[in-house]
Design a protein that fits this description.
Elements lengths: L2 E5 L32 H4 L12 E11 L2 E8 L2 E7 L5 E2 L5 E5 L4 H14 L2 E8 L10 H8 L3 E6 L1 H15 L10 H20 L3 E3 L8 H12 L4 E3 L10 H10 L13 E4 L4 E4 L29 E8 L2 E5 L2 E2 L2 H14 L4 E7 L5 E7 L1 H17 L2 H19 L6 H13 L5 E8 L2 E8 L7 H4 L11 H9 L1 H10 L3
Parallel strand pairs: 6-7, 6-9, 7-8, 9-10
Antiparallel strand pairs: 1-8, 2-3, 3-4, 4-5, 11-12, 12-17, 13-14, 13-18, 14-15, 16-17, 18-19
């Protein structure tokens, strides 16, 4: 179970992130939440709910005046929803009580907090997931959330769960999207969304919110997970609703609502980091013809600057999942952390690609996945010993669909879960070790061994043996090539 830190009091308590602990108890400190607005007319709220598409059967404007407030009744399906116009001219659809917001502490999510309170009249619970993005991104969140108007901050350490329950199943399945992408962001979103659903239950929230834009994949990944785990939750996506169109608008909104604007310098790149990878998008990368600048990379050194001597790493694998490095057994998150350091030192795992987003457009991204590249190489190489030809072909075929489902946010789709059961079953004998040579950006296999190896030296050897009689090949070739012989005979009139 993930470690949970819940801060209600916004005291000077420091958030510590030293990895998961065995004590998974929950600690709460309560204070009154920021004052709610007095009336629905003062709120002027907008709704964003995704419980299925609403079909409006008829709309009646009754023209009932009450001061400056016109009342309108909308009959959708068999339910009547009352709406009104507040003093600020905004349309009120539904009152939310408490919203759990995916929170990073950056400009966008800092602005979303007062926007939710203003437009939905709700308490806002900020939620931050530690998936290995680095301690620097978790510093000062308590103060930022308080200054933005949140009544509660919840931080969960999800690193072990992320690697164990999301990354390793994809690794076992061999899931790679469009030949290159190792699904770093795709795997992180469902574990975060799952935790948000859990927090919503813990704090009694009736809605969840995220800061994803309407052009990206992440909005789909978050919301499909919400649907799968708690379809009763309302979902608010401000970027699809508000009038803020860019950074300057957001800064102005923050100033008007007394929200401190983050003073950190905005990166020219859009980045997403977790324990599996670091992605880079934007700026010069938007032109696929441009070569990435070397100073952009953060997890890996330039291969030219990597050590002049190769390093050998032995990866231990049990039933398709890595368990050790050079004979040392480690937890999933610890193992990946160590391999990231080793791989990054040798410039391993840089990928530059143009991919097809789920929403239809193409985008160019650069990814650093040092530890993941090492693990994928080791896992696939061990399968060359333990899986037969037909099984490998079927596994590779299904891996394409598996990757597509994960990329599209369908982690909790029954099809992916069923395919995962298949992957788990066929890799029961994929146990052993693989030795890899790391050198200036390259990963080469130098050895592999398994107690379940299907490789037999006495059969494969060029020397004569009792099991394989070379004379048997003649009959096999005649039968195997019979269709080709018949076609040739037909063409020659034989």
């Amino acid at each position: 179970m993930a470690q949970l830190h819940a801060i209600y009091s916004f005291s000077s308590t420091n958030l510590l992130f030293h990895g998961p602990k065995r004590d998974s108890s929950q600690v709460y400190h309560k204070i009154p939440c920021p004052r709610k607005m007095e009336s629905r007319e003062e709120l002027g709220m907008k709704a964003s709910e995704f419980h299925g598409q609403a079909i409006v059967k008829r709309v009646a404007n009754f023209g009932l005046g009450r001061g400056n407030h016109a009342i309108r009744a909308v009959l959708a399906d068999d339910k009547e929803v009352a709406t009104s116009t507040g003093v600020d001219g905004k349309v009120l659809h539904k009152k939310l009580n408490k919203v759990v917001l995916a929170y990073s502490g950056g400009l966008d999510t800092s602005v979303i907090v007062p926007w939710l309170r203003e437009n939905y009249g709700c308490e806002v619970v900020c939620f931050t997931a530690d998936v290995g993005q680095g301690l620097q991104e978790l510093d000062g969140l308590e103060q930022k959330a308080k200054a933005s108007g949140a009544c509660q901050l919840v931080v969960k350490d999800l690193k072990e769960e992320f690697v164990r329950d999301f990354i390793f199943p994809c690794l076992r399945a061999g899931a790679i999207y469009e030949r290159k992408y190792l699904l770093g962001t795709s795997m992180a979103r469902p574990v975060i969304a799952k935790a948000m659903v859990d927090v919503a239950k813990e704090v009694g929230a009736d809605a969840v919110a995220h800061g994803c834009t309407g052009k990206g994949n992440d909005q789909v990944r978050f919301e499909l997970t919400f649907f799968a785990l708690n379809p009763e939750l309302s979902v608010v996506a401000p970027w699809r609703e508000w009038e803020i169109t860019g950074r300057e608008d957001a800064i102005e909104y923050a100033r008007k609502h007394n929200v401190p604007v983050p003073v950190t310098k905005k990166s020219i790149y859009s980045r997403d980091r977790n324990l599996w990878h670091l992605s880079h998008e934007g700026d010069i990368l938007e032109d696929p013809a441009n070569e990435p600048k070397e100073d952009m990379y953060m997890m890996s050194v330039d291969p030219k600057e990597a050590p002049d001597e190769p390093e050998y790493v032995k990866i231990g694998i049990v039933e398709g999942l890595p368990v050790s490095i050079n004979g040392k057994e480690l937890s999933p998150a610890s193992l990946l952390t160590e391999l990231n350091a080793i791989g990054g030192k040798h410039g391993i795992g840089r990928i530059d690609m143009v991919e097809n987003r789920l929403v239809g457009m193409k985008s160019r991204g650069v990814y650093e996945t040092p530890g993941g590249t090492i693990l994928f190489t080791a896992a696939r190489e061990l399968e060359s010993l333990t899986l037969d030809r037909e099984t490998i072909q079927m596994k590779d075929f299904l891996a394409l669909k598996y990757a597509e489902l994960v990329y599209a946010g369908r982690w909790y789709d029954p099809l992916r879960e069923s395919m995962d059961a298949f992957m788990k079953e066929i890799t029961k004998t994929t146990s052993g070790s693989v030795t890899l040579k790391l050198y200036k950006g390259s990963v080469n296999v130098t050895g592999r061994e398994s107690p379940y190896s299907l490789y037999r030296q006495d059969i494969s050897s060029f020397e004569s043996g009792d099991i394989y009689n070379q004379a048997d090949a003649a009959g096999f070739i005649r039968l195997y090539g019979l269709p080709m012989r018949v076609r040739a005979m037909l063409e020659k009139g034989l």
